[in-house]
Amino acid sequence: MEFVGITVLLYDEKVNSVIHGFTPAGRANHYMPSLKADSILKVDRFEVAMCSSMYKITDHPFLIRFISLTIIDEVITGAPEINLQ
């Protein structure tokens, strides 16, 4: 098995939707410390692409790719209420 990258689910609070996020293996080590289970993150400076039906894991038509300019910050206060259903 070959490690190809990290897949995350991102919640867009403005449209109440879940978006598929991906960072390739080459950048995984850079973002790994910021990606904590059950945390709420703010993601800036990313690339948006159409989501291939072959790899589609959400109903959202787009995919977010982390690029070298992507910034990930944990939201400590003022985080949205997320319905886990």
Could you characterize what this model shows?
It is a single chain. By secondary structure, this protein is mainly β. It has one domain (5-73): OB fold (Dihydrolipoamide Acetyltransferase, E2P). 8% of the residues lie in helices and 46% in strands. It contains one helix and four strands. It has one helix spanning 25-31, and strands at 5-12, 17-24, 41-50, 62-74. A four-stranded mixed sheet has the order 1-2-4-3. A hairpin with a 4-residue loop joins strand 1 and strand 2. The longest helix is centred in the N-terminal third of the chain and has 7 residues, at 25-31. The chain starts with a strand and ends in an 11-residue tail after the last strand. The mean pLDDT is 81. This is DUF223 domain-containing protein.
List keywords for this structure.
about 80 residues; mainly beta; OB fold (Dihydrolipoamide Acetyltransferase, E2P); about 10% helix; globular
Summarize, please.
With 85 residues, the chain is mainly beta.
Write the layout of secondary structure elements.
Blueprint: E1 5-12, E2 17-24, H1 25-31, E3 41-50, E4 62-74
Parallel strand pairs: 2-4
Antiparallel strand pairs: 1-2, 3-4
